[in-house]
Specification:
Blueprint: E1 2-3, H1 8-23, E2 32-33, H2 38-43, E3 51-56, E4 59-65, H3 70-86
Length: 87
Amino acid sequence: MFVSRWCPYCRYFERVVARLRLKFPEIEFEFIDVERNPELAEKFDVEMLPTTILLSGEKVVGGFMGFVDERTAERSLRDQLKEIRSS
């Protein structure tokens, strides 16, 4: 999760992620502050905050940009995980 301290949507999304951690124990959620890690944000072409990048090893396999509510985030992650597992 790419976030910033100045982003109000990022702070709200952190609460959403706290609940998603309980629903997806197989995913390691990590918050990356774009101001402290600009090179990493650039590497993943982060253009909007918050941005969620789903990685398998070093490979980007999914994610979404911008704030989404908990239900939308959960549905998106479930769909993306299902697709990853079936490939």
